[in-house]
Design a protein that fits this description.
- This protein is an alpha+beta fold.
- It folds into two domains: 214 residues, Peptide methionine sulphoxide reductase MsrA (Peptide Methionine Sulfoxide Reductase, Chain A, 2-Layer Sandwich), CATH 3.30.1060.10; 138 residues, Beta Complex (Metal Binding Protein, Guanine Nucleotide Exchange Factor, Chain A), CATH 2.170.150.20.
- The protein starts with 5 loop residues before the first helix and ends in a 20-residue tail after the last strand.
- The relative contact order is 0.11.
- The N terminus is likely disordered.
Length: 374
Amino acid sequence: MRPLFVLPILIASLGLSIGFNINNSHGNPYEKGMSMEQKDANLRKATFAGGCFWCIEADFEKLDGVVEVVSGYTGGQSENPSYEQVSAGRTGHAEAVQVVYDPSRVTYRDLLEYFWKHVDPTDAGGQFVDRGSQYRPAVFYHDEEQKQMAEESKRELEKSGRFSKPVVAEIVRLQTFYAAEDYHQDYYKKDSDRYNQYRRGSGRDRFLQKTWPASQGRSAAGGQDKKYTRPDDDVLRKKLAPLQYEVTQHEGTEPAFRNEFWDNKKEGIYVDIVSGEPLFSSLDKFDSGTGWPSFSRPLNEEYILQREDRKLFMSRTEVRSRHGQSHLGHVFPDGPPPTGLRYCINSAALRFIPKEELEHEGYGEYKQLFEGGR
């Protein structure tokens, strides 16, 4: 459970009574997001539970394309639950967040991938220091399309080998979402000192850094992700060599053993030749004997997309960069431990940055990978 000293101090500092039933907003299902959707019909909602809603709200609000995040309660039996009731585990509700997002800037699939990287999906008994079903991890889907995508995303996470224990986070239909009391909303901004003290002590960030070493840090610490984009086609034709353009834009394949990086053994990272997205690390590179650069896992899975490829009369899984939309290669289930995967990538889709040039090239956050291991 959260440290008991936090709530009394907070209540006193805001001049609220222990009951806090007079001026709170938990008595009505969330309407603020609905008003936003009325202003912009293109906005959508997604709902997630992952332990302390202060933390999940803070993390999602840093994601580009997210318009608003509201802390609240869902998944239980009682109507209009209060924080006291939910935190005591008496209502069956989970602390959750409702995310209002712009699907033209961030997709539901993006939200799912981001969610998995900010919780422990193997712990059904709570999250980190907060214990009890009220802190269980869950995806609350709004419609059948979200359900299908959530189940598929969960299966992919299970197959990735990222966790040694089963992924037990629930995927359940959203019923009613109740906004939490006003003082819980944007708590990480209202009382950043106490929020940061709680978060440091919760064990959340230590777990996330250990589990997702390349994708954490910026979001947890409050930084914004870099902006990687795909230039216009005219720019690409001038920027890329003919083979690079053919591979990345027309799904071409370069010759085996006659490409730039198949036997490169230098330490550093590989980025998308089109957008600059950091994709793979030399620490995960291995000799597959195929004549193409091969990696056991991505450097940062947030920048990797996988799609079914049925060309050449077979079914394969294509790998693309998220922002550059570059065709990179394919991934196969015949790689080494711990993932058992082989990302077979075209050199023509990559630019290599040696470890000693990472800072100069703007990828200084990855230097730590080569200063004591991953």
